[in-house]
Amino acid sequence: MRHVPHSVVVITSALPPTKSDHTYSSCRGMTVSSFTTVALSPVPTVCFNIRAPSSTLAAIQKSGHFLVHILDASPHGVKVADAFTRGLGAAAFDNKAFEVSRERDGMPLLVSTGVSRVLQCRALGGGVVVGDHVIVLGEVLKIQGDVQGEEGEKGYGLVYVNRAYRCVGKDIPVGGD
After folding, report:
1. Which of 10, 26, 134, 156 is the most buried (most CB within 10 A)?
2. Beta strands in 19-175 (DSSP E)
3. How many CB atoms lie under 10 A from the CB of residue 176?
4. What is the pTM of this model?
5. Per residue in 43-101, pLDDT tens?
């Protein structure tokens, strides 16, 4: 599968904060390369896979909400993706590659030139268990565009293939030789 390009996004969520918690200790996030659209009608629906157990999955299941940060195919997008690949928990949010803003519902929004769009989603159930992974389905409630957006190559999102972050390549015309 390493030769098949996969989109790269960062998923964030948060455990319900305590009244005294003004830090990001309740925030959770992870980089995923299994994000895809399931349906556009009647309501846009997306999905991704998470290996269980996961603190991000627990936050999604408890809060019922998550954000999908679509990353720009640029060095800034790579820095945001890389920040959430190491399983650092709440510590991942302390990073110079982005700022963190808390939405009204407590969800951590990453603000960076590397984030081109953010999908606010409501989780549809607790997920579907398949082996050691859980497929998370979400209904898109709102799309925020160009969160400090820097346009990468033709505005494409970041992809991962053959153990490296990449940008979508040249167009191949239909019917070409």
Report:
1. 10
2. 27-32, 36-39, 45-51, 65-71, 99-102, 108-111, 115-123, 128-130, 133-145, 159-161, 164-166
3. 6
4. 0.89
5. 999 999 999 999 999 999 999 999 999 999 999 999 999 999 987 788 899 999 999 98
**Which of 144, 140, 105 has its CA nearest to residue 14?**
105
- Give which of 63, 65, 30 is closest to 49, Cα–Cα: 30
Question: What is the C-alpha to C-alpha distance for residues 93 and 116, in angstroms, rounded to an integer?
Answer: 18
**What's 18's DSSP letter?**
P
Q: Which of 161, 155, 169 is nearest to 74 (CA)?
A: 155
How far, in Å, CA of 166 to CA of 168, rounded?
Answer: 7
Between CA 177 and CA 172 the distance in angstroms is: 10
Q: Provide the β-strand partners of residue 14.
A: 27
**Alpha-helical runs (H) found in the chain:** 55-63, 75-83
Strand partners, 127: none
CA distance 27 to 107: 8
Q: How far apart are the first and last CA of the chain?
A: 27
